[in-house]
Amino acid sequence: MQLHPRDRARLVDAAMGRVPCDLAIRNVRLFNVLTWETYEAEVGIVDGFVACVSADPDGTGGRFPIEAAESFDGGGGLLIPGFIDSHLHIESSMLTPAHMAEAVLPQGTTTLITDPHEVANVGGVEAVEYMLEASEGLPMRQFVLVPSCVPAVPELGNAGASFGRDEVERLLDHPRVLGLAELMDYPGILANSARMRAIMDACERRGGFMQGHAPFLADRDLNAYAASGVRSDHETRTGREARDKLRLGMHVDMRESSMSLNAAAIAPAVKDFRNLSTLSLCTDDLEPEDILTTGHVSRVVARAVECGLSPEQAITCATLNAAREIGITNLGAVAPGFAADLQIVSDLARPRPSAVFAMGRLVARDGRMLAAVPRRSFPQEERNTVRLEIPSEEALRIPAEGTSARVRVVKYDSLNGSTTSFSMEDLPVEDGYLSLGGDRDLKFVAVLNRHGGGTRFVGVVRNFGTARGAYGATVSHDSHNLVVVYDRPSDALAVIRALKECGGGKIAAVDGAVVGRLELPIYGLISRLDADGLAREISGMKKILRSALGLEVPNPLMRIVSLALPVIPKAKFSDIGLVDVLAQKIVPLME
Fold it and tell me: Least packed by Cβ within 10 Å: which of 170, 274, 328, 561?
């Protein structure tokens, strides 16, 4: 696939000097991701594409003058391509597509490969179309992949929508849709399930890209997953996984998100491979505060270098490799005919752009947004998608017989991660209901279907981290039901009522009263605020979670979001029961 200039003949005329370029970038040193050379150059741009590169790296007299309507003095900085985020969910940043563009363009990111499966699980095809409409006409490229697993695993829980071949084919026809987003139902893929095969065949017939999701797959299973047509994986968490996937021809999207930090495991394990053309970088789920303070793809580049990649390797992973991964042949390099998405930095190892160009226009300078971003509103932004009946306190308790019960408890494996496991524990029974027995490390968890389905499940979690009160959210990957962690039902009810009233978000309550709120009224996932305003609210909410609820974990806001995600090992909740992720089945709460 190629990006096409409006007038190819004009591009040729400008390269030949018959007509002036729109813009010439002068006084820069070009780091060429195609050859890993650095040399002085001037770049001519026409209609958002590079027309010519005037340089003489071999000293043979290859420089030629570039006439242009405008010139930009790069101040002797390093000119590199704009960064490409090879996998992310804009909704996980809780920003609209327009506000996302405002946040990441000054950081040097000019292209996003987005998976809107968060909104898809709430609002179906209409929600994906909203993300496409809301990202139209922005001063950056936001490509979209069709959510492939809505819900993630249909047999294990309910979402607000269900995607089959018909829904996928409808969305694949959009010109900014490149293929299928992360194929999370790897058990279905390995079993050649009819649902997954139909969805994948629809993409394959169109020549689309198929993005993977394969945590801990190895050996025969990994071979079969790659043979199915899946081309990438961003869920790689160990060095062995990274090496195995690269050796089998898969693209590995090395991730540094607000929740999962994988560069330390991956970079040292692969840095000595002589060919890293199938290693790319992604952010997956990144909060606004992190974007504004530590960068976007730029932060992944810096971390990759800290962990062992050379600066040249890291920059290439963030640009050319990502473009080749998604099959766009004229993106991710500074060369004639390539898209003029560029940035000027002073240091490849810690890139902080002094100027960013997207589609041939100067859009940001010294960390400030210059380009205007369209201000539009959409009817989908005004709908309350929290559709549930408020339960009774009794419904938030677990009936049990006798004086004690043997309970299957979901246990967090660490303070900074999303993996969980089961432990069998004997818990006391008081007045016909399960009791936590005064154990501060134990909490109840309720998952309520908030899409009008009426289903609900209550279980027990260990090591969540709260000392008191209740913490609830409608951000709960991937079905985005309402999840609340609590010790007293009265606190849980306060959270549930507040979430329904505001249309979703994250709420904390103590002694039956709401003490903190982060409202996300768009699909219960996205704020109407820009990155600066939202970052302030997030910071305040984190302080409340730590001080009022005692949730002392590295990222208290994100602690709850994967508790009901049935594709991350090993034990999870859903609105219909306890999920054994590895066995892909519902298991009983008590034995």
Answer: 274
Q: Please give the sequence-ordered ranges of beta strands (E in DSSP) within 224-315, or none if there are none.
A: 232-233, 251-255, 279-282
Cα dihedral sign, 547-551-555-559:
negative
Cβ atoms 398, 589 nearer than 8 A: yes
pLDDT in tens, 448-496: 999 999 999 999 999 999 999 999 999 999 899 999 999 999 999 999 9
pLDDT band of 14, cuts 50, 70, 90:
very high
User: What is residue 299's three-state secondary structure?
Assistant: helix
For strands 83-88 and 109-114, give the pairing: parallel
Q: What is the dihedral of CA 447, 450, 456, 461, to 10 degrees?
A: 0
55/567 Cα distance (integer angstroms) = 50
Judged by DSSP in three states, 201 sits in: helix
Relative to beta strand 470-473, strand 456-462 is unpaired
- Radius of gyration from C-alpha coordinates of the chain: 25
The region that residue 183 occupies, defined by phi over 0 for left and psi between -120 and 50 for alpha, beta otherwise, is: beta
Residue in the structure block whose two tokens are 């309970």: 407
- The helix-helix angle for 117-134 and 97-104 (nearest 10°) equals 80
- This prediction's pTM: 0.94
